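Entry 0007
Protein: F-box domain-containing protein
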Amino acid sequence: MGTSMQRRQPQATSGLITLQDDPTEGDEVEMHSGPSLPEDILCHIHSFMPMRDAARAACVSHAFLRSWRCHSNLNFSKETLGLNENACGKDAPGRVFYSKVDHILKKHSGIGLKKLKILIDSDYSAKDSRYLNSWLRIAVAPGIEELTLILVPFGAKYNFPCSLLSDGSGDSIQYLHLARCSFRPTATLGGLRSLTRLHLCLVRITGDELVCFLTHSPALERLELRSCDKIVCLKVPRLLQRLNYLEVSGCAKLKVIENEAPNVSSFAFGGGNSVQLSLGETLQMKSLSMSRCGSIFYARAELPSSMPNLEALTVHSHTEMAYAPMLRSKFFRLKRLSIALTGASSPAYDYLSLALFFDAAPSLETFDLDVWQRYMKNVSVFADPADLRQMRGLQHHKLRSVSITGFSSAKSLVELTRHILESITSLECLTLETPQSSLRCSDRCNKSGKCSPLAEDLLMEGRRVVLAIRRFIEPKVPSTVKLRVLEPCGCHAV
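Output (structure tokens):
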């Protein structure tokens, strides 16, 4: 490697190159001409480097310095810039962050930039919007493919300049991720014709503004909306022929979801029971995730007839007022089922009734159940160990893996587990994870190296769980089944 020896070695702060410094100005830095490869190949190699390494290379190589000024992937956060307290000295990390990013982007030629991610997690005020506007004016140009802007501080008020996306400047954007800002597209803006994924989190946008934007984004494949509280009615237009994934969660004022896009095959929803769901054509639905009260009953009673081709189903409920019903309708193609019934608001639930899902899903291969509760409301198997119930005639020949998280001494949960072992002929692995196993020494050691004490009720239930497994579960385990039990740590073992 040839050298053109002119300057001192670059300084590093906390192991990172000081990205604010320009290696071509100021103090002497030792520069290298770089390997004798065509410049386009060097630029291609440089584009695959993480931003820190790319900056280091630019400080010692003329070839990489030219490439740095048109680097295609810029990811700005306090972490990627190495802005800890030691690096910032007396200056606030937020102020140093703005200064560094501003310097780097103003030195960037604007050519070749494909991905820009900006994460601001502290020290944001309204006056800092001028920085963001300036950075976006540099970045949003023909050729940009991914744009991510995440404002973490609560109460951050920033209006994304939608006008930057007009006149074809944003036509190359394929992925747009905005968090905690206002996004107010208008009819004059239209949409982004190359956009395939839109992710909005804590974004202030109305349903009418969103549908206006979606109407002009025909290439969209994934739409993710989280905690967008200005949306009351979400309408997904039919012209989104490529849309296959729709996620809506935590939108507090949402009342209606009307989906007319014909090819949505994956839908994830988390919200209140008052939200009206009109999902349109559901025969092609293959994956569904739902988090709302009563979702377990709803999944068994309604979904087999409306979504008969489901292959993966996840339901999460805090409260179930009725048990899963016994019906003739079946999930003939369902292969993976995940059920979570957690939270202090859940009443005592008959877990044995969940066995009806096995009969309803003859192709099921994986079953995951989460029943973690801080205070168990179910009757313990030790309070009534006699007459453990059985469900006769329900056998399964495809299910291979079962996992139960938050396993307790609840009698109906012990009954369900025994049913699984006795009726599922294809079972290969059963995993039982006690609630206390997540509170292990490695996570709870104090300075003396000893495990912090558990509350007495947790300690006692942990002992009951282990005893219940040994007395009622282990004798039922066939030799062909691997039983994995994640017990409390040694400090709290029986």
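Curator remark: The radius of gyration is 28 Å. The longest helix spans residues 456-473.
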